[in-house]
Amino acid sequence: MTIIFYISAVIAVIATLITITSMNPVRALLYFILSLLASGVIFFVLGDPFAAALVVIINAGAIMVLFVFVVMMINPGKRTIEQEKQWTGAKMWILPSFLAVILLAEFIYILLLPGHRFSGHQIIQPKQVGLELFGHYLLVVELVSMVLLVGLLGAHHLSRKSNTVKSEDLED
Amino acid sequence: MAEINMQTGLILAGILFALGLTGVLVRRNIIFVLLSIEIMLNACGLAFIVIGSAMQEPDGQVMYFFILAIAAAEMAVGLGLVLNMFHKYKTLDTNMLNQMRG
After folding, report:
1. Is B72 close to A148, i.e. CB distance below 8 A?
2. What angle do CA B26, B31, B33 make, to 5 degrees?
3. pLDDT in tens, A129-160
4. Helix pair angle (B30-55, B59-89), 10° resolution
5. Residues A116 and A167 placed together within one structural domain of the fold
6. Residues B41, B85: contact at Cβ < 8 Å?
7. Residue partners of B62: CB distance under 8 A and separation at least 6
8. In angstroms, what separates the C-alpha of B8 from chain A's closest C-alpha?
9. pTM here?
10. Contacts A43 to B, Cβ<8 Å
């Protein structure tokens, strides 16, 4: 189990390094998703399957899709077609797929491992997390829901049509 | 099979956080700055998970849950700001935003 942790850690660090050094936003997003998947494997190995599911669904799924949408929106016109051709070339996906295949192999290895899956680490069940979340931390959950509401209102306000018109008026 | 000790996990979280911080400081494209902030938040979450796992307590995962929620809210507002910036200035360079007019 330790070796899986180290392999995932190396993949996470490599993917993050490429994320912050690459010039192409979509490539950076791809590598960042890979880094998130690697951290998901790390959470799983550490005995937190709930957090592993959350990082894949929310972080790698929802937030990154939002990011990709924005990158696509601010890349309009003919340039995108050329970029699309460039991105679908072999050079773009070979290293990410290689690293992802390593993660997949680790995942299959963990699933096929008989018996002692989480040696040294007791699994923290989602039930425990839920009891703690809605018992001891109830007030913080309310605060977080306020933060999400404020985020929603902020995003709505920022993307309103009249808002952009107003800012253009200010420019004149 | 030996147990993964807490120090190793925390070192990994530290390395990832340092990479994110470097990204914020070095890059001038606002998309990459937002991505680096996301990297830092994820590294914080990793640190919480590692400590929670070492202590055998669910509190680490609870904190990770909160960090995820805050990251989602931050991304929604941040990407709205990026779109506004792009519509107004036609660029993603943060250096173009250094002029404030009244």
Report:
1. yes
2. 35
3. 889 889 989 999 999 999 999 999 998 888 78
4. 180
5. no
6. no
7. A129, A132, A133, A137
8. 9
9. 0.84
10. 46, 49
Radius of gyration of chain B measured on its C-alpha atoms: 17
Three-state secondary structure along A91-138?
Answer: HHHHHHHHHHHHHHHHHHHHHHCCCCCCCCCCCCCHHHHHHHHHCCCH
Domain definitions of chain B by residue range: 15-90
Could you tell me which CATH class the domain B15-90 is placed in?
mainly alpha
Which one of A46, A143, A145 makes the best mutation probe of the B interface by having the most chain B beta carbons within 10 Å? A46
Cβ–Cβ below 8 Å for B72 and A62: yes
Handedness of CA A115, A118, A119, A125 (dihedral sign): negative
Same-domain status, A116 and A151: no
Q: Do A5 and B8 touch (CB under 8 A)?
A: yes
Question: The tokens of A36 are what?
Answer: 């998130």
Rounded CA separation B9/B54 (Å): 10
Question: Across the interface, do A132 and B68 touch by the CB < 8 Å criterion?
Answer: no
ipTM computed for the complex: 0.89
pLDDT tens by residue, A71-101: 888 876 566 666 666 666 667 778 888 888 8
A147 and B8 within 8 Å at the Cβ level: the answer is: no
What are the tokens at A92? 């773009």
Nearest chain A residue to B67 by CA distance is A144
CA pair distance B33, B75, nearest whole angstrom: 11
Q: A74 lies in which domain range?
A: 2-123
Q: Do B23 and A150 touch (CB under 8 A)?
A: no
Angle formed by the axes of helices B6-26 and A25-45, nearest 10°: 170
Q: Which two tokens stand for residue A131?
A: 């009891």
